[in-house]
Specification:
- The complex is a heterodimer of chains A (about 140) and B (about 130).
- With about 140 residues, chain A is of the alpha+beta class.
- Chain A has helices at about 1-30, 105-135, and strands at about 35, 45-50, 70-75, 80-85, 95-100.
- Helices cover about 45% and strands about 15% of the residues of chain A.
- In chain A, the strands form 2 sheets. Chain A has a 3-stranded antiparallel sheet, with no helix packed on it.
- In chain A, α1 (about 1-30) packs antiparallel against α2 (about 105-135).
- The longest helix of chain A is centred in the last third of the chain and has 33 residues, at about 105-135.
- The chains are: A alpha+beta (about 140), B mainly alpha (about 130).
- The interface of A and B includes residues 60, 65 and 130 of A.
Amino acid sequence: MSAFSIFNVAGSGMAAQSLRLNTVASNLANADSVASTPAAAYRSREPLFAAVQRGLDGQGGDAGATGVQVLGVTQSNAAIPSRYEPGNPMANADGYVFASNVNPVDELVNMISASRSYQNDVDVMNTTKQLMVKTLDLGK
Amino acid sequence: MSLIPDNLFGIHTRALELWQRRSEVLASNLANADTPGYLARDVDFRKALSAAGSGTGNLPLQTDASGQIGGSAAQAGAPLEYRVPTQPSMDGNTVDEQVEQAAFAANGVHYQASLSFITAQIHMLRNAITGA
């Protein structure tokens, strides 16, 4: 039933984008987190999207409807900045703390992009719903 | 003998299915607007409708097994084509959200137009039956 697969496709898109918004939120929240070692420092997280090649209706025959799946959440490999703060209780023996490698500008851009895409999916769903209701009213 | 022909609504039922199919493809494009490497697709409506009108009762937009991209005979009537990107992005994604939004909106209007044609046909028949 193809009209319903639009809901599945748009729904998968909304789920993926909201996960992206979640990672943006945790990245921004942890932008100023510090740690005693580089390994323990917070690394910027980002979801990895991929198109679902199988049909979302479970029959596998519907190559037209392609949803989104989140393959996983990756962590940034950018360098962890260290700061000399001997007074910080988290400082190591040499007086350094290790901050997160979150780039707030990247995160804000990500946030805008994710919310726009989310809105697009909502629009798609609304339009489809209206068209389906009109189809149900056919002949009245 | 029935006076009402089998294809009561003419090409409009076929068109309706095609518009619906196309909205599905466009919805997939919009959902994958941020997927790296995703290639935007669209239905060539003219080809699809002429294939549908040429009469194999079943709408020939259906593809066979998933993951197969083109080439097979079963897909001859399923002209899903890749969009030529105006400004491709670095991650290989060719979805232009504005283009897809516009196409989706236009597609919805076309769908409603087909619906109105069918509704008009129903009204005409009802008038003929009741004589009102």
